[in-house]
Amino acid sequence: MRAHKLSRGRTLAAVLTLGAGLLAASAANAVLAPGAKAPDFKARATLGGKEFDVSLAAMLQKGPVVVYFYPAAFTSGCTVEAHDFAEAIPEFEQLGAHVIGVSEDGIAKLDKFSVSACQSKFPVAADPDGSITHSFDAAMMIIPGHASRTSYAIGPDGTILAAYSAMDPDGHVARMLEAVKQWQLKSAHANQG
C-alpha cells in the first residue's frame, strides 16, 4: 500500500513537472521572429475607460508600437505587467513609441482594467475570439481562451523588431524599451549616413 501511495506521489510530481515544462515551452516557442511582418489588426480598445476602434496600421503611422499580450485582466501577473508598462510610458513616449495591450477579455472588463491597472496611460484591446492573439502566435495552448505573456516591438514599417515571451511579467518592459532604443539609434544613424 505504501509503495502504491509513493508511486502515485511520484506520478503526480511528474505530471506537474511536465505541465510546467509544457507551459514554459508554450510561452517560449510561440513567437513571431524579428524581421517578420507583424499582422495588422483592428479591434475595440479602451483607454481610461473610454472605448474606441484601433488598428495597428494607424498606430504605426505615428511611430514604433509595442503590442503586448497577457493572459487575463485583473490576475496578479497581468496587473503587475500593466503597472510596469504604465510607469514606463514616459520613456516610450520620449522614443516616439506607443504601447497597446491585448487580451482575450471582453471590452467591458477592459474598461475597468484600463483605468485601474493601466492607470489610463495606454490602451488595451479586446480580442474575445482570439483572432489577434493567434495571428501573433501568442495563444496559450494549455489554457484555451488566454494569451501567453508575449511582447512585440514593431517598427513603423510593420517589421517586428523584437519578441519576448515569458510568463513572468518582469523583463517585458525593459526588453521592449531596449528594442525601441536600438531601432531609434539605427534610424538616426541611417538618416545621418
Description:
The chain is α/β, with parallel strands linked by helices. It has a single domain, classed as Glutaredoxin. It contains 6 helices and 7 strands. Helix 3 runs parallel beside helix 6. The relative contact order is 0.20. The N terminus is likely disordered.
Describe this structure in a few short sentences.
The protein has 193 residues and is α/β, with parallel strands linked by helices. Helices cover 46% and strands 19% of the residues.
Overall shape: it is: globular
Spatial extent as radius of gyration = 18 Å
Q: What is the fold-level CATH name, i.e. the topology? A: Glutaredoxin
The percent range for helix content is 40-55%
What class do helices, strands and sheet pairing give?
A: alpha/beta
Order of strands side by side in the largest beta sheet? Answer: 2-1-5-4-3-6-7
CATH architecture: 3-Layer(aba) Sandwich
Integer average pLDDT: 87
- Describe the main β-sheet briefly: 7 strands, mixed
Portion in beta strands: 15-25%
How many domains comprise the coordinates? 1
The tally of helices reads 6
| N- to C-terminal distance | 77 Å
Q: CATH H level: which superfamily?
A: Glutaredoxin
The number of strands is 7
The first-level CATH class is given as Alpha Beta
What's the topology here?
Elements: H1 2-29, E1 42-47, E2 50-55, H2 56-60, E3 65-69, H3 76-94, E4 98-103, H4 107-116, E5 124-126, H5 131-135, E6 150-154, E7 160-165, H6 172-192
Parallel strand pairs: 3-4, 4-5
Antiparallel strand pairs: 1-2, 1-5, 3-6, 6-7
